[in-house]
Amino acid sequence: MFLIPTEPFSYCLRVAYADTDAQGRVYYGRFFPFLDRARDEFWRSLGFSEEETIRIEHETVMVEMQVRYFNPARFYDLLRIFVEVARLGNSSVHLRFKIINDKTGQEILQATQVHVQIDPKTEKSIPWSDLFREVVIKKFKDVVQKE
Predict the structure, then answer these.
(1) pTM value?
(2) Is 90 helix (H, G, I), strand (E, B) or coil?
(3) Is the separation of the CB atoms in 120 and 58 below 8 Å?
């Protein structure tokens, strides 16, 4: 049974010293693993099991990512990462992210990712499973579009 959350999904993480550059700011490339971790937790929050989440992550490829940086994050900042589905196509899913400083509320960045479901053997795009579509549509009713 899937438990669909009614609140927007968010995931918190604290910036480690290793994430910062010589200026004391989070190095821009370190935000990508932050988004990956939030995405994994997002699938779990929708009720997908560990095995289903592994399958989602292993049977998709990221075909596009856009990031817009607004403010720096620094060592020991607690960051809150919001994740939502912006669009669901036949074989693609567009995810939207926003990172804020959890203490100050200052917006750090916004990002979008486009993932395409593939057959691992042929590496050709394939439609999402009925279960995946059902779960996403139940939570994000207005995101389904034809590709």
Answers:
(1) 0.91
(2) coil
(3) yes
